[in-house]
Design brief:
Distance between the termini: 60 Å
Mean pLDDT: 94
Oligomer: single chain
Helix content: 55-70%
Length: 261
């Protein structure tokens, strides 16, 4: 039992098992299971609470906030204990697209007024994208660690919580998606990208995948621009902006179509 725990958490000399690999059957089965559970639970709770008061709806987001930050804190403790130093914290700052939800989900759950509106919209827009990219697209993780390892299991769970929160917000009709808040969404994302790039240069690291693709779908853009140190990070930011614009555009079209029925 102790040997299993050491191997699952990666203590000692690290994982002895050979990683099954990105897009292996083990990887796809594991993340698909997470996605099915995520979607099923979001649909069930979203439909159940759709007609409830805002306090009841918000209780689910409160649970999401505690769970996602709780798992992340536990991960930081284990990784630091495993390396016997605090140095890994520099590589675990909330500066990835997915890890921004460590901040925005609690804000969506506990804040009020416009801050709550913007936070809910941000989780709604990026939660599901982060869930897909952080599970099916996480080549950097599944090529490095066994599928059923602490690193991949916790990463899969936290990304699934983000996706769940996004779907739940949409299904339970918590989102406002007010046009006047659009500029804040753009500003928040671009600001995180700027901070992430500064961290990438100073640490150095690869937050927001602004330096290289690291085996993720961003590799397509990286290869397209030949790894250009200026065009690649700018291209990543442009993709984010295009995604936000497309998301808002599709949302407003769907809402308009429903009103015209």
């Amino acid at each position: 039992m102790m040997e299993f725990l050491r191997e699952f958490f990666g203590f000692g000399e690290g994982y002895k098992r050979t990683p099954e690999g990105y897009m292996s059957s083990a990887h796809l089965i594991f993340v698909t299971t997470l996605m099915v559970l995520m979607i099923g639970l979001a649909v069930f709770l979203g439909l159940k609470n759709k007609s409830k008061d805002e306090k009841t709806k918000n209780l689910v987001l409160i649970w999401c906030a505690f769970l996602i930050d709780g798992f992340e804190i536990f991960k930081i403790i284990i990784v630091c204990a495993r390396s016997e130093s605090f140095e890994p914290i520099l590589r675990m700052l909330p500066l990835f697209l997915c890890s921004i939800q460590l901040i925005t989900i609690p804000l969506a759950a506990f804040s009020k007024g416009r801050v709550k509106e913007v936070s809910i919209d941000f989780v709604f827009i990026f939660g599901i994208l982060g869930a897909v990219l952080g599970t099916y697209g996480a080549g950097q993780n599944y090529n490095a660690y066994p599928v059923l390892s602490f690193d991949n299991v916790v990463s899969g769970v936290t990304h699934s919580i983000s996706g769940f929160a996004s779907l739940y917000i949409g299904i339970s009709r918590m989102t406002s998606m007010r046009p006047k808040n659009m500029w804040i969404t753009f500003t928040v994302l671009v600001s995180f990208c700027v901070v992430a790039y500064i961290a990438d240069v100073l640490i150095p690291y690869n937050y927001m995948f602004l330096i290289r693709g690291d085996g993720t779908p961003y590799d397509m853009l990286y290869n397209l621009v030949g790894g250009n140190a200026i065009l690649y990070p700018l291209g990543v930011v442009v993709l984010f902006i295009l995604y936000i614009s497309a998301f808002y555009g599709i949302y407003f079209l769907v809402r308009k179509a429903k009103k015209n029925r």
